[in-house]
Amino acid sequence: QVTPRGLRPERFGDKARSERAAHFDFDKHEVIFSANTPRATIGDGAQDRLSVFIQLGAMLAAAPGRYPPGTQITLTTVGARNADRWTFTVDGPETLDLPVGSTPALKLQRLPREDQHYDQKAELWLGTELGYLPVRIRLSQSNGDFVDLLLSGHEAP
Q: Are 84 and 76 in contact (CB under 8 A)?
């Protein structure tokens, strides 16, 4: 759902071998997992591992001056098995050479936590001339595996 306070996910699914899901119940301030994982408490701004990237873009689009380089933004981020606090740092502007051409962007980064050996690194570039929508998302695992998503096209609304 899109609300005055941002995105409000209802369900997050992850399918590697079999699908696991997290179901959001904002009225009860909890998320319920399908994998026999204990429920987790969440607040109104909780996001899933996909919507967090869109929500960050919406936050920056609404008030770009509020997030200068070095600013940290922390959101509860829900996966198929747990809810964690993800902190992104605003790195600063960059120009990316993407399949759609040269694209001005603002880079944000979530570094793995030092106490978590298998924590994921997330890098996000928001198109400053495209309403701060994600133009690149790079997710890296501790073993070096990664996925790198690049904007390949877009249409005017």
A: yes
The sign of the CA dihedral 60, 64, 66, 71 is positive
Residues 97, 99, 105, 111: what is their CA dihedral angle, to the nearest 10 degrees?
Answer: -90
At 65, which amino acid appears? G
pLDDT digits (tens, 9 = 90+) for 18-62: 889 999 999 999 999 997 889 999 999 999 999 999 999 999 999
Residues in CB range of 69: below 8 A, 6 or more apart: 90, 91, 92
The pTM of the full predicted model, rounded to 2 decimals, is: 0.90
Helices (H), the chain: 51-62
- Which pair of tokens denotes residue 70? 């070095």
